[in-house]
Amino acid sequence: MRPLPFIIILTVLNHVAFNGSRIAVSLFAIHQGSSPLTVGILIALYALLPALLSVTAGRWIDRIGVSRPMLLGSIGVSVGTLAPFLLPHPVALYFTAVVVGMSFMLINVAAYHAVGGMSVPEDRTVNFSYLALGFSTSAFVAPMLTGVCIDTLGYRSTFLVLALFTVLPIVALAGKLLPAGHPHDPHDASPRGPVFDLLKDPELRRLFVAMAILTVAWDVYNFAIPVYGTSIGLSASQIGIVMGAFAAATFTVRLAMPFIVQRMQPWPMLAASLLMSGLAYVVLPFTHSVGVLMAIAFLLGLGLGAPQPMVLSLLHQAAPVGRAGEALGLRTTLINTSQTVMPLIFGAVGATLGITPLFWGMAAALLGGSAFAGRKRELPDGD
C-alpha cells in the first residue's frame, strides 16, 4: 500500500479510539454524578501533556522520522482506553485523559509531518484534505459508535471496543510496514534557535492564531454538547447522532476541498468559516430538539472543518527548512495550552452560569476572529 493511504488508515483507527474515549469519559463522569467543572478538568487533562511536550515531540520526529513515534502513540492510546475497562473507577478516567491525550499527540504530529513531507507543494493542500477526510470519518464514527455502545453494552465494555481500534495500527507499525520517513539532515536545516522565534514570522504568527481559535471552538463543542444534551434530556445515542452530524459536515466540506482551493484564497475562506461558526454558536442554546441540533451541528461542522487543510499546508510551506515538525509541535502546544485552560474556565462557568454563556463566549471569539481574518486578507503578507 502507498504511504499516504496507509498513514491515513492508521491515524483514523487511532482517532476513533481517541475521540470515542473523550466522549465516553465525559458521559461516564456525568453518569457518576460529576459536575461540569469535573468534566472540564477531565477534558483539559487530554491537552495538558501535549501542551508541555509537543515541541519536543516535533523536534524528535524531525530527527528520527514518523514510524517509531506513531507506534509509541498507538500503544499509549490502547493502554489508556483499556484503563476504565480494567478499573471502572473515577481515577481511571483521569489516567485515560492524560495517557490518551499525550499518545495521540505523537500520532497527530507525526501524521501531519509525514503527509506534508511526502507532498509536493502543489498537492500538499489536497493531501492534507485527504488526511482531514480521514479525521472526519473517524469523528463521524466515534460519537455514534460510543453512544450506541454505552446504551447497549454499558460504559465499561465501550472502552474495550474503543481499544480494539488500536490493534491494527500497533501490529502494522511493529511490523515496520510504514517507512520511518526521511529525517532532515541537520546540516541542511535552518539554524535552530528558541522555538518561539518561529512566531517572529508574520505569516506563521497569523496561522497560529487562526488555528488556535478554530481548535478551541472545536474543543468547546466536544465539551459542551454532551453536557448540554444531557441537560435537555437527550440519550447517549441522541448525543452521538448530533455529534455525528457535525462530523458528517466536516467530511462533506473536506471532500469538496480540491474544488474549493481552486476558487478561494486562504484568508477569505477563513473569514467566512469563522463567521459561519460564530453564528452557529449564537443560536445553539435556543435549540432543544434533536433535528434542529443536528442542523446547527452540521452548519458548525462546515465552518470549522473547511479551513484546516489549507491552513496546515500554509504552515508546512512557511516553516523553516528542517523545522516543520517543530512548527507542527508548536501549533499543538499553543492549541493544547488553550485546550488545557479553557475547559477549566468553561467548566467553572458552566457550573455557575450554565452552558449558554459558553456558547456565546465562543461565538464572540469566532466573530472577532472572522473580523481579524477579513482585515488581514487586505494586508500584504509581510505586514
Automatic annotation (TrEMBL):
Tell me the ranges covered by the Major facilitator superfamily (MFS) profile domain, including all copies. Answer: 1-381
Judging by the UniProt lineage, the source's domain of life is: Bacteria
Question: Its principal location?
Answer: membrane
Annotated Gene Ontology MF terms?
transmembrane transporter activity
| UniProt keyword annotations, A-Z | Membrane, Transmembrane, Transmembrane helix
The record's SUPFAM superfamilies line, in alphabetical order, gives: MFS general substrate transporter (SSF103473)
**Annotated localization:** Membrane
Q: Look up and give the membrane topology term.
A: Multi-pass membrane protein
Tell me the PROSITE patterns matching this sequence. Answer: MFS
Which Pfam families has this protein been placed in?
Answer: MFS_1 (PF07690)
Q: Which GO terms describe its cellular component?
A: membrane
Keyword Transmembrane belongs to the record: yes
User: InterPro entries this protein is in?
Assistant: MFS (IPR011701), MFS_dom (IPR020846), MFS_trans_sf (IPR036259), Sugar_transport-like (IPR052528), Tet-R_TetA/multi-R_MdtG-like (IPR001958)
Keyword Membrane: yes or no? Answer: yes
Q: Where are the transmembrane segments?
A: 7-31, 37-58, 70-87, 93-115, 127-146, 158-178, 207-229, 235-257, 278-304, 344-367
Question: By its UniProt entry, which PANTHER family does this protein fall under?
Answer: INTEGRAL MEMBRANE TRANSPORT PROTEIN, INTEGRAL MEMBRANE TRANSPORT PROTEIN-RELATED
Tell me what this protein is called. Putative MFS family arabinose efflux permease
Q: Which organism is it from?
A: Roseateles toxinivorans
